[in-house]
Amino acid sequence: MKSLRSNFGRIAVVVFLALLLAGAMLLSLRFGSLKLTFGEILETLFLHREGIDYQIVFNIRLPRVLLGAMVGGSLAVAGTILQGIMRNPLASPGIIGVSAGGGLAGILVMLALPQFGAFLVPAAFCGSLGTAVLVYLLAWRRGVNPVRLILAGVAVSSMLGAFSSTILLLNAEKAGGVLDFTIGSLAARSWPQIGQAGSYMAAGLVAALFLSRRLNILALGDEVAAGLGIRVERTRLLLLAAAALLAASAVSVAGLLGFVGLIAPHIVRIVIGTDNRFLVPGSALFGAAMVVGCDTVGRMVMEPSELPAGVIMSLFGPPFFLWLLRRHSYEA
Amino acid sequence: MRLEVKALTAGYGAKLVLDGVEFEIPPGKIMTLVGANGSGKSTLLKVVGRLLKPRTGCVLLDGKAVHACDTAALARKMAILPQLHHVSGETTVRELVGYGRYPYRSGFGVLSLRDREVIEEILRLTRLVPFQERKLSTLSGGERQRAWIAMTLAQEPKILLLDEPTTFLDIRSQFEVIELVRDLNRRCGITVLMVLHDLNLAARCSDFIVTLKGKRIRHIGTPREILQPEILREVFEIESQVYVGTDGIPYCVPTGSVKENGNENGENQL
């Protein structure tokens, strides 16, 4: 493993993960109820841009694959950032309240205010981001320390969860319709969702890459970071904003897709170590491949009906992670 | 580099911890802050290291207030190792030392040739070369503390601030840390201001000892001037016997605590 942690090794791993993602995306384009060869896919996309095949490949599969990659990458990077600033290996995007806030807003729109169904994505986005801001403000006391932030996040999430449960109970006969959102799924997502969330995700990812070196330093502790010349509160706020933006946009388009934000950073860290300059892009690629892969499997296992990506992820992710964990000495 | 503390008051929230502290850290010397728990040693170190803003007064580095300096530029002159630090056990020694180069890097942060030379030199100086690829989770407490000191040295500081660098270490590791500090001071001329709890260790490695009690500085002097039963009684509320070793370094043997009511018990303990 040592050689994989040299700069050359880590770059090689990142390149490998990029290829893994590309492979997952190609397979995801190919498989589904309509079976096409790779040649036919290319032909459909670039030559015969019409007919039912083109509609399926261009308007259903391609955006779904792209969105899966964007959602997975965003959640994994948000998790990487939060594990770094919280200095806590258990941190995941949910910890700053984005899941509970996005969940409540989503459930509210779908069950209590169905006439506003068209605003599901912006509502979930605002619910997520608004909750993250609320958690930050509640944790503030002459600065924000990670423990206060985690506790405020847990408290706020618990309260919002109670509201969500209440709405679900009052609308029990319609509750089945929101399962897809609460488990996390890419079904029926297409270009509009990419348009709604894409630019926020891109902004969050660029910010994360740009801040990754400062994240390394901040993870050493507030006082050490200040001693090394970092403006601690400002840097933490920037990083939190990037993580919240990424997680909120992912939740708004794919629902409460768990696990990938917690586990993808760990899996990549086991292989290439803790340097966030490599961990951020590595997690982004691996998280993206995870979601695309799980979505593809979910479409194939029960054809013609499908299982949400969130179910597949929670089913197959843990055994893979536990296998890795047992093979390596790993002390996050 | 001249480091002066002028008319300093500092604290947390409503609580005042330092009140009217004034002293100068002699360039090229090792100065150690001692005092009971809660006497403000760590607070003073944090204010000097610009981790905490003073209420009033200032810390001057070559005549310029450190709290007004560009914090990254300051990190190239002065390094501080606080008591509380954190690192993932997955980080390697070499990575940790590399983080000490942060104040010198720009952009995406690729290590320059000069950065790598400095890191090599410091790994040699701190005898960490054999450990450089090891994960921190696999090191002993003493080795890990050396790695943290190496991180601060990568800043190439003229002034080094250390907050209880020997706490939790076994006795040999304590000496290794102290000897490393002494060595850095002698060979590289680094000025050191540190907090130590062990008076005998402080006496062995310091040029000057500063005692703190009741929010202010009580004494400043050489180890032989400070290690006196009367001073230790005043500062630490302990009875003690003080001897001077054959190497000329004083050491104290505490014999009991000073009792609240009167001195009669205390005197009997001698």
What does this protein structure show overall?
The complex is a heterodimer of chains A (332) and B (270). With 332 residues, chain A is mainly α. Chain A has a domain at 2-90 and 184-326: ABC transporter involved in vitamin B12 uptake, BtuC (Orthogonal Bundle), CATH 1.10.3470.10. Chain A is 76% helix and 0% strand. Chain A is built from 13 helices and no strands. Chain A has helices spanning 7-30, 38-46, 51-86, 98-112, 120-139, 146-170, 176-183, 191-218, 222-227, 232-254, 260-272, 276-301, 309-327. In chain A, helix 12 crosses helix 13. With 270 residues, chain B is α/β, with parallel strands linked by helices. Chain B has two domains: 3-226, P-loop containing nucleotide triphosphate hydrolases (Rossmann fold, 3-Layer(aba) Sandwich), CATH 3.40.50; 239-270, no CATH class. Chain B has ten helices and twelve strands. A six-stranded mixed β-sheet of chain B has the order 6-7-8-3-9-10, with helices on both faces. Chain B has a four-stranded antiparallel β-sheet with strand order 2-1-4-5, with helices on one face. A two-stranded antiparallel sheet of chain B has the order 11-12. In chain B, helix 6 (171-188) links the parallel strand 7 (159-163) and strand 8 (191-195). Chain B is globular and about 60 Å long. The model of chain B is unreliable at 264-270 (pLDDT under 50). The chains are: A mainly alpha (332), B alpha/beta (270).
CATH 2nd-level architecture of the largest domain in chain B = 3-Layer(aba) Sandwich
Number of helices of chain B: 10
Main β-sheet of chain B: number of strands, strand sense, barrel status?
Answer: 6 strands, mixed
Regions with little confidence, pLDDT below 50 for 5+ residues of chain B:
264-270
The helix content of chain A is over 70%
- For the record, the CATH architecture of the domain at 2-90 and 184-326 in chain A stands as Orthogonal Bundle
CATH structural fold name of the largest domain in chain B? Rossmann fold
Number of helices of chain A: 13
Give the CATH level 1 class of the domain at 2-90 and 184-326 in chain A. Answer: Mainly Alpha
CATH domain fold name of the domain at 2-90 and 184-326 in chain A: ABC transporter involved in vitamin B12 uptake, BtuC
Ranges of chain A where pLDDT stays below 50 over 5 or more residues in a row are none
**Inertia-based shape of chain A:** globular
Give the CATH class of the largest domain in chain B.
Alpha Beta
- The proportion of residues in beta strands of chain B is 25-35%
Mean pLDDT of chain A: 90
Q: What is the gyration radius of chain A calculated from CA atoms? A: 20 Å
State the separation between the terminal residues of chain A, measured CA to CA. Answer: 16 Å
